[in-house]
Specification:
Helices cover 55% and strands 8% of the residues. It is α/β, with parallel strands linked by helices. Strands 2-3-4-1-5 form a five-stranded parallel beta sheet. It has a three-stranded antiparallel beta sheet with strand order 6-8-7. The radius of gyration is 25 Å and the shape is globular.
Length: 447
């Protein structure tokens, strides 16, 4: 079985630890694209904490699984909760043996209510509860207020992971100190690949010296690392995608972890069918059946939920069109200037855009008024919705929009609710947009 090692996050862990050490009530948000390693980061942080602390790690991707994990936590803390239920005192580490004597029967509903009450009391420092809510933006909007109050008590220190960076904004229910978890840099990603490969097939290490430049084994290792870097780039620097990609190599390419293995993977990635097979493949572990595609599907499902719940249904379809369009244009980074040109170009070619949107099944039932459609199409609104589900991200340094290569590959090769004809229409539209953007840019440079 391939196992992954946590790598490339030391500086980020130090920043989180500094924030933790200098806060009285700790609320920390880890935001980033699906598969970037937010959960792994939270686990690594917990491992560095004092072992005497109560830690509850709760899945929060929806109300049902969160309730299941709360009940599981209540069962595991039964002795402590029974003491609290009986005498109103919170059991700390040294009291747990004594707490075991409280064996009075109590229903699960009462035990769960006691757990919820426990999280609201003002405890001693050594008995504070550390709660991690994993995948919080998946929680249905109707339950956010209820749970934000539940986990907002004085007894609780809170960390949560989310694809939506705005969930932690000041004034929001889940206001917190936010840390962005970016994709791994190339060298960090190569380190992860080397660790995974070494776990299955030891890689000889070589001491770099002036004479080693002519050593064939050294040159072989240099080629290996270069191709590892290319594999990591194709997989967007996402640890989850890299791990799945190496599982595919091991299971399907008779991997010996040499340069030829990585070359085979890169050659497959350059073919539509090969790339599609890689995106759809999953690890051969019963407890982990997610493919690289799964993360994009989750984001697309949440986009549908968010836009259909709060906005007109046609905004959801327009968000998809914009995402397909950016993917077809092969844009990884969209600067502020490019974004302005993109919006201007979409205004010019709006009739073609309307025809494309109307060809999407179900959209014609919502709106047939062309003027209304043009008016309602807001690129800014669509971009904001895509960012909330991490289908697009924004770079804090310069405000540029980023489209991860894995997201782009999934959108183009495993499309959701779009026919081959619609895909061809998107590609033609992308060509028109790019042509107009180029001509506008050239014209602007002449003046």
């Amino acid at each position: 079985m391939l196992t992954s090692s946590f790598a490339g996050r030391d500086n980020l862990l130090e920043e989180i630890q500094h924030q933790w050490d200098h806060s009285t009530q700790r609320r920390i948000a880890l935001a980033g694209i699906g598969g970037v390693g937010k959960t792994e980061l939270s686990v690594s942080f917990v491992e560095k904490l004092d072992s005497d602390r109560y830690v509850l790690w709760l899945r929060s991707s929806n109300h049902q699984v969160l309730q299941e994990d709360l009940k599981k936590a209540a069962r595991e803390l039964r002795h402590e909760l029974l003491q609290f239920y009986a005498v109103g005192n919170l059991a700390v580490r040294e009291d747990r043996d004594a707490a075991a004597s409280y064996v009075s029967p109590i229903a699960m509903s009462e035990l769960l209510d006691t757990l919820k009450l426990w999280m609201k009391v003002t405890p001693k420092d050594e008995s504070r509860i550390f709660i991690i809510l994993d995948d919080l933006d998946g929680l249905e909007p109707a339950y956010h207020e209820e749970y934000s109050h539940l986990f907002g008590g004085d007894a609780v220190d809170l960390m949560y992971t989310s694809r939506d960076p705005s969930i932690a904004d000041p004034g929001m229910l889940w206001e917190a100190t936010q840390f962005e978890v970016p994709p791994l840099r190339r060298e960090e990603a190569v380190g992860v690949i080397e660790g995974l490969a070494r776990h299955n097939h030891p890689i000889p290490t070589h001491v770099v010296s002036s004479s080693s430049q002519h050593d064939p084994s050294f040159e072989n290792n240099v080629v290996n690392r270069a191709r590892m870097g290319n594999v990591a780039s194709r997989l967007g620097g996402l640890p989850a995608a890299i791990t799945n990609g190496l599982h595919y190599m091991r299971d399907n390419l008779d991997s010996k972890w040499d340069p030829d293995c990585y070359k085979k993977f890169l050659d497959l990635w350059d073919q539509d069918d090969g790339k599609r097979n890689i995106l759809r493949s999953h690890r051969t572990m019963l407890k982990y059946r997610h493919s690289i595609l799964t993360s994009t599907e989750v984001s697309l499902d949440r986009l549908r939920r968010n836009t259909c719940d709060r906005l007109r249904y046609d905004i959801h379809e327009l968000c998809l069109v914009l995402l397909w369009l950016l993917s077809a244009m092969d844009l990884n980074t969209i600067s502020r200037d490019d974004f302005r040109l993109l919006k201007d170009s979409l205004r010019i070619i709006s009739p073609d855009l309307q025809d494309l949107v109307r060809s999407i099944p179900g959209f014609g039932l919502v709106s047939t008024d062309q003027e209304s459609l043009v008016h309602d199409f807001s690129v800014n609104c669509c971009v904001a919705e895509l960012v909330k589900v991490s289908l697009l991200t924004q770079r804090s340094s310069d405000g540029a929009w980023l489209l991860n290569p894995v997201t782009k590959a999934c959108v183009l090769l495993v499309p959701i609710s779009i026919s081959l004809e619609q895909r061809a229409a998107v590609e033609r539209l992308a060509e028109k947009v790019q042509e107009h953007m180029r001509s506008t840019e050239i014209a602007g440079s002449l003046f």
